[in-house]
Amino acid sequence: MQGRHKAAGATGPEPAPKDPLAAPRKITIRDVAREAGVGVGTVSRVLNDHPAVSAQMRARIRAVMAQMDYRPDQIAQDLGRRFTKCLGVVVPDLANPFFAELVQALEQAARAGGYNLFLTNSTEDPRIEAACVDSLFRRRIDGLFLIRCQAGSADYAGYDLPIIHVDRLAAPQTGTGVEIGAASDHAGGMALGLDHLVSLGHRRIALLAGEQSLMPARLRHDSYLGLMAPLLAQEGIAVADYIVTGRFDLTSGEQGLKRLMALPETIRPTAVVASSDQQAIGALRAAQELALSVPRDLSLMGFDGLPVAAMITPRLTTIEQPVAKIAQAAFALFAGLPERTGPPQVILPCRLRSGETTGPVRG
Predict the structure, then answer these.
(1) Which has the closest alpha carbon to 143: 85, 94, 193, 230?
(2) What are phi and psi of 148, to 5 degrees?
(3) How far apart are CA 214 and CA 203, in angstroms?
């Protein structure tokens, strides 16, 4: 009997011999992704020379392709080769003039780089933020600018999508690295404002703080605390009495200043620095209600450098964030992702924009 005999005790038919003339199974993009330990989308981006894949990852995937003798279907690849040349942005509050200005700057930076921008608004709701990210991803955008909502963002690492965080950067977490992003030097900006007030002779300087769940608010708060706690201790004032925490809005500024002005006259602040221009404008309205002359009775300073700050009377002294430079840095981080060798975050200095709401302390 020709051929190989069945082993003793074996049951069932012998497997059919392979047909030497049959075409081998075609290696697919999914096979390559599985072997390389990456998503199909990442392999697709390598095939399409997408800029959002690092040189190291690109080389690794191409080595797997060569090892597996993967030959992509050129017709299908040509049909699928499509950079949308579109970027997405998730903004937390379009009613906030700072974010409206920042979005406009991002749009200008994207357009200068040959991209269009899709805009979505999370309205400070983490569930809506997650839905916005998912919707933009399904539009096959090439990258995303994320300005996280008040309550903090979900982990979007599962999306095969370059994400650049803007303004509201999170604190670095042990073991998770630092998210890529661009923002102002919030701590340095607060120090700049306090130095200005101290140079005018003020020592009793209070703070209208923002919500501490946000890194910009926390950095400004901590900078104030570090600089002012020793000065206030010399005045016999508890620093906690001089910090009123609220939101970056008009109402918080108005209510916060009234609370500070309710302190005993002997320890009432002679100057107030707000963590946003909106808070400062609200505080200015409260000062007018209380018949306080600004800056004769009280010096007042904002933070952001909004255009409206220069249009009100008196013109607001404020710490100006470099909005256009933040947007340009964010786009440069996106464009440079494949070959990025510098730090993952770009932190830009603020500047003092003098107005009419700060003056020398009264004798």
Answers:
(1) 85
(2) -65, 155
(3) 27
Q: Tokens at residue 160, please? A: 């095969």
Taking Cα atoms as reference points, which of 270, 224, 219, 214 lies closest to residue 246?
A: 214
Neighbours of 206 (CB within 10 A): 28
In order, the DSSP letters of 7-66 are PTT--SPPPPPP-TTSPPPPP-HHHHHHHHTS-HHHHHHHHTT-TTS-HHHHHHHHHHHH
How far apart CA 110 and CA 103 sit, in angstroms, is 10
pTM of the full structure: 0.75
Give residue-wise pLDDT tens across range 164-207.
Answer: 999 998 765 434 457 889 999 999 999 999 999 999 999 999 99
Q: Is 229 helix (H, G, I), strand (E, B) or coil?
A: helix
Q: Which long-range contacts (CB under 8 A, 24 or more apart) does 292-298 make?
A: 292/261, 294/357, 295/356, 295/357, 295/358, 295/359, 296/359, 296/362, 297/362, 298/269, 298/270, 298/271, 298/272
